Write the structure tokens for this entry.
Amino acid sequence: MADHPSDLTVRGVRIYRTLLDLKAQQQMAREIGTVVAQAPLFTPRTPGGRKMSVRMTSAGCCGWFSDHRGYRYIPRHPSGQDWPPIPPSVLAVWAQLTGLDRMPDCCLVNFYGGRARLGMHQDRDEADTAWPVVSVSLGDSARFRIGNTYRGGPTQSIWLESGDVAVLDDEARLIYHGIDRVKAGTSSLLNGGGRINLTLRVVY
Ligand code: MD6
Ligand code: FE
């Protein structure tokens, strides 16, 4: 794939600026709208009992979940229904950027409204963390903070905008990262505003 001039790598995280043009973003937003209609967003609780400010759902054969019993993947939406399939436009981004034959098991859908944020964390609930994680941003811009493979230490942050895609693999796969804040009104993609982030993972 030809690199876009503004693509960059921050602490090993590869960022593809506007990989998705406006039409592709609109198509993906529609497909995610269908996912959310079938598998409504819910508010997870941390193992410590706090409500997360990000609302979530998933597509695929399993969905990421958290409550007082810990972080894990579950085979059905909390309602008891199957998770909807991962939309084709999302699988296409995975195939394009990873070049893998293996498709992701889970597309986690994070929705940020208002003052939602996401604390620094590693993505390590998957059985084999050698597989990459691919992350797509849609809607309002967000301050993405990137740290180290250990908790703490120096960090760097960048703004992720609608249509940007980030890949965490190799040395960056287990890097700590989080969302400091989302800037309302920076995109008109989503009806009602806010930001959606999709993360694609091989879980099993
Ligand atoms: C977000 N992203 O952008 C949160 N995780 O809203 C993540 O937590 C993330 O961007 C793993 C890989 C890439 C990511
Ligand atoms: Fe993450």
Notes: DSSP finds two helices and 13 strands in the chain. The mean pLDDT is 97. The pocket of MD6 (ligand 1) is lined by residues 110, 118, 123, 133, 135, 144, 166, 168, 177, 179, 197, 199 (CB under 6 Å).
